[in-house]
Amino acid sequence: MPSAVLTASPRPSPPGVPAGGPRATLWLLRLVALVHAGLVVGQPVLAGIYLSGRFDALATHSLNAGLVILACLWQVGAALVYVWPGRGRGWPVLVSALLFFAEGIQTGMGYAGKLAVHVPLGVTVVTTQVVFVVWLFRPGARRPRRTLQRQPKAGEQA
Fold first, then answer.
1. pTM above 0.90, yes or no
2. Which has the closest alpha carbon to 91: 27, 41, 141?
């Protein structure tokens, strides 16, 4: 029996779904990721306000940390929708899940006063989220994920 060759190719679009990759699910992920990015970028701003002498900003920084984690949880959900029914690439789910994990550690380190971890991890979270949002608005985000499909060998019927 001849063996088949597996090649990477875009999954054919189901009937009634336009070809070309995710559309509505990408816009959902973009919206949620933008909100998340706004909250994430606000964290160092609030920390700076606190460090400049407005000590009430620490309570706002703490409240915003909870909102950041909640928004990241929504981002994980939006990334799952982007990947599964939207046929988008899979790595945004991994990035979003890792961000959720990092933000949990980040918040814990902040409450524990471990600034040697809190500050560099915060820089990493902000940078990762901003780069992720930039990617979401680039053309590559619209490309559908590639799946392995069985290609018949020469002389074999399809």
1. no
2. 141
